[in-house]
Amino acid sequence: MSERPTTPAARADLVADTALALLAERGMRGLTHRAVDDAAGLPQGSTSNVARTRQALLELAVRRLADREERVLALQDLPDPREGGVDALLDALALTVHRALAQNRDLTLARYELALEATRRPELRARFDTAGARFRTHLTALVTALGSPSPDRHALTLIAWADGLLLSCVAGSYHAEPPTIPDIRADLGEIIEGMLGTRSAE
């Protein structure tokens, strides 16, 4: 590394970012305190000073993952359909999903590793669910603004579709042929049309 972090917060971010990179590259078994120290170019024991236990390291990674994905997805910045119309929202959502596919593959892989580990660790599950709640809140507000008669259920539908698409294209059988932005927009248009019982413009 050319520079070492000079504040505790910066070091914590470096440790968390390195942990996420290792999860994407090596999987859960490849994530150790020593591996983070080595990959981050930190003196041995540095990661333990930030996150003493494996549980603490995983929780740190979950928090950092949520912060980084929030910046990538930027759901809070999507246009309000009551002002810009459904088409503007569809355009923005399609770009958001494509960005997660094309530019953040490693972050998505790390998320799946952490999600699976959370099924075996109740404390991590609680952290993971809390982190994910912010995305559900934003998406539920969007489908409410669209006029959804069942915002919670429809938000789940959109999340399940996006998660399935990401898994198929990042780690599944479609990894070599991810959809284009127009394809993603068409899918979203069909889903939202079904929710609202209306046809959105192509």
Helices and strands, with pairings:
Layout: H1 8-26, H2 33-40, H3 46-50, H4 54-73, H5 81-103, H6 105-118, H7 122-146, H8 151-170, H9 181-196
Helix pairs in contact: 1-2, 1-4, 1-6, 4-6, 4-7, 5-9, 6-7, 7-8
The fraction of residues in strands falls at: under 5%
Low-confidence stretches: none
Alpha-carbon distance between the two ends:
48 Å
Radius of gyration: 19 Å
What does this structure look like?
This protein has 202 residues and is mainly α. The chain contains nine helices and no strands. The model has no long low-confidence stretch (mean pLDDT 88).
Give a quick summary of the entry.
The protein has helices spanning 8-26, 33-40, 46-50, 54-73, 81-103, 105-118, 122-146, 151-170, 181-196. It is mainly alpha-helical and 202 residues long.
Supply database-style keywords.
mainly alpha
